[in-house]
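Project standup — Tuesday

K.O.: blocked on the structure for the chain from last sprint. Re-posting the sequence here as requested.
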Amino acid sequence: MAVDVHMHPHRRSVKETHGGYGDYDLESEMLTDGTFKDGLIEGFLADAEMLDHAIVLAVAAPKYWIRASNELVSAFAKACGEKVIGFASVDPNSPTAAPELERAVKELGLRGLKLSPIYQDFEPDSPDVYPLYEKIQELGIPVIWHQGTSLMARFGPLEDANPVRLDIVLRDFPEIKMVFSHMAVPWATEAVLMMQKHPQLYMDISATVMSRPWFVYNALVTAMESGCLHKVLFASDYPWYTPAETREALYALAEFPKGTNLPKLPMEELEAIVNRDSVSVLGI
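H.V.: unblocked you, prediction finished:
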């Protein structure tokens, strides 16, 4: 079972041709009849060939270019078939966040939520957000957090992106399963120790294993030494990287310690990350 828990419904050309999200209008890919322009679905499924399931994420971040509506993600997931699982996103600053999430889950068929303080400009431990967490818990869905830095969010609140800000939320909502994306870069040690502390918390390797392999090696060693390597989930951050590229970059970490006294990452442990049934882990 191979599951990628962090993909976006964009064309690969976002990286290869556009060089970023800025001049790419994702919403223009969906036609008025709910279908998509030629090649979008086919290209995604080709790049996701190695996977049994792919989680595709929406982002309600109107200040930035990476937004994708819940309607688009729902239509995208349906067009891809059973392989793809859509996650919603809502703006925690909006008074309609909780009802919009309920609509996205119950009417659009989305099965989880993506949140990001640095993109959405909110304090994750604020009491103002608690009604949204209560709705998440009521719906029984997991949350994937971009809880870390981002080069695209220069003016985003880095102080709100520290994973430690979620410790009180994890304590107050122990039934909500959560995932820290990108290993909460640059706070991997804090994230691993929080993952060790909280049974419902996981982390994924999206983007970081391709762009920061030494960072990921150290984070995985810390997770191994902390007895929670089994809580690390496979993820690519497509379209920036494909699942196959991510798998090969992960396996390459087994070579890092050769000729040194550095701790070894057993290949079977790295293979276990790729083959982890994250759908069952997250209860979706």
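K.O.: great, moving the ticket to review. The two ends are 14 Å apart (CA to CA). The CA atoms of residues 93 and 122 lie 7 Å apart.
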